[in-house]
Structure formats: C-alpha cells, structure tokens
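Quick start: read one record
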Amino acid sequence: MQDAETLQLAARLGIAGLVGLAVGVEREWSGHARGPTAHFAGLRTFLILGLTGGIAGLLSTTDQVIPATVLLLGAVAFVVAAFAVRMRRPEAEMDGTTEAAALVVLGLSLLAGLGQMALAGGAVAIVVLALGEKQRLHALVAKVDEEELHAAARFAVMALVILPLLPSTGIPWLGNTSLRGIWAIVLLFSGINFAGYVARKVLGAGRGYGVTGALGGIVSSTLVTLQFARQSRVEPQHGAALATGVTAACSVLAIRVWVITAVLASSVAVQVLPYVIPPVLVGGLVILASLRHTPKAEGGFQGNGSPLGLANSIRMTAFFVVALVGLDWLQAQFGQQGVYASAVLLGLTDMDALLVSMSRLAADGVEPAAVSARAIAIGTLSNTAFKLGLALIIGRGVFRTRAAVGLLALGAAIGAALVLR
C-alpha cells in the first residue's frame, strides 16, 4: 500500500517536471533562451520551476501549507526579479512571454502535485501550442478588425449574460417553448451568421459557407437551411456556396443521428446504420461535385452589415417559432396513430425528440430496434422534405436549384435504403 502511494507521488512530481520541461524545450527551440537578448529561463530552469511547483503541491497535500507557500512565493519572486533585471538592459525588448510562461508552469505543476495530472498535462499542451504558433496567431489577429471584435463581444454578452437570466419555463401558447429556448435559437442563428462571416473572410465564400454549414449541422441542419436560404436573397452571387453549406449540414445530420442513437440505444444504432451510410456517401459526392463547379472567388469578400446579423436572426427565430407552433398543433390534431406516423411529424418538428423517443421505445422493449431505426429513417426523410420546402420557398436564384439537387439526392439515398431494407 505504501509503495503504491509512493509511486503515485512520484508520478505527480514527474508530471510536474514534464510540464516545465515541455515549455523549456519550446523556449530553447524558439531561441528565446540564447543570444544577447536571451530571457532568464531555458530548458533546465523551466524543469526546475516545474519540479518546484510540483513539490509545493505535494507539500500542500500533506498539510505542509506554510512551507509550500514559501517555496511557491520564492519561485514567483525569482521570476519577477529576473524580468525586472532583464528590462534594465538597454537592448531589452518589452516582451514578458517567457516570464508569463514561467508563472503558468508554476501554477500547472502545482496542480500536478495536488493530483490534477490530466488537467495539468492538457493545459501545458495548449500553452506550448500557443507559444509555438506565435506567427500564425499574430497573423490571425491581424485579420480581425474592430467590427468583428465588437461582434464577438456582443455575442459573449448575449450568451453568457442574457441567456442565463431568461426563464426556462415553457410557454403553452408558444408550443411549450421557453424564452431561454427562443433566445438560444437567436444565438444559434447569430452564431451561424458570425461563423459564416469569418469563414468567408478567411477561406473565401466558395469554401467558407461549406465549412460553416458542416459545423452548423452538428447543432441544427434545419436552422442552417433556413439561415442560408435567407442569405441567398442578400447574396445571390454566393448561392452555389450557400447550397453547398446546406448539403454539408444535412450530411452531418446523418452522422449526428447515428452518434445520438449510439449513446441512447446501441441496438438501434446498429439497425440505423444502413440508413445513415447512404446519405453520408451521397452527400459527400454532391459536396465534392459542388466544390469543383463553384468558382474559387465569387465576387470576393464583402462585409454585408453586422457579422452577427442580429435583426435578421430575430426575424428568422420568430418565423421558426411560428412554424414549430403550427406543426405542434398539427401533431396534436393528428394524434399518435402509429410509430411511423409519429416519426413523420417529429421529423418535421424536432429531430432530437424523434431520436430520443424512438430510442426509448427500443430500450424499453416497446418496439423492436429495427422498427425504431426505420422510424428514425422515416423521420429524417420527413425532415429533409421540410428543408427542401424551406430552400424552394425562401431561397432565391442558383441557391434554389443547387440546394434542391443536394436535398433530393440525400432524400433519394434515404428512400432507397428504406425500400431496399
């Protein structure tokens, strides 16, 4: 038992040393520890700082708080003094990155000494990556203008301040949707708009909208379709790229369906796989073909107003909530007449509700896994038809044609799987 405890303590101290060693290697490699303007610490010094923090952490776990505090404060004082001495040199640059990294090493190695080894290891990997990617990070920041920075700040306030303050109680006349849920939809629309804005700026419209659509499909391919259809009215010259984004979002939906069912009911995940693979393959082929026939630069980057598009996001959310309320009323009128009929209606309203309800039927033994999987495929087909309607009614120009081709191809893949299985 004592040997096991000794090995555990040695492992903590070893991780603490590796924390310092990792940063020290990067500082040596980058050249900051050598030359006439060298900073105070290199590989060996960082290793010692890491061990110092680790020892302080070990002392804290044995109720030796005062020695641990003295040791840690002494190391911090050493780093501060080294920075002050270096800044007195005439040739010194106003750069405290190495000293800041030393303080972070002390903190992370302290965590390792306290037993939080995984957290310390993961955090130091991020620190080393940030130190090594200095040029790329600076280049990325150089591309961010004042408008984008303000948009990011507003989005943070909307998500971190306003959202938690809103009530989460469902409102009956809004389809039992809460104000917090409605605001979350606004955030999602704004997030998609902001991600598309940044992706267009970095990658160009031809590639940026595809990436944005794929990422948005992880959350809601329906909202991506609605947003991009609306966007095609404002940016008709980017209609083909927007349609590619819709196809990407709907292809990701198929993967999302499988992942969620795998978590909820593994037996259903096995049965639903034949319905998932065809749309993923077909969607991938459609996306590749679309990218080959999409110009690399469709009119260049244009800001087109606020990166968040908040006013448009609120209008789209209002439309979406009205549609949900209408579909909820239809479902209430239609009733739960069979698993497949319910799957059609749930596919129109809420894919997550479809996946949860059908997986639960199989997990509780109410329906066989094969029936639940088929119902999920039917609901996904219904959802695809709904998005096709959105694209045709709201979309404009080449977006309507390209999006229709992509969605019809995905629907045909799901339909073929239903027929053949």
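The two ends are 58 Å apart (CA to CA).
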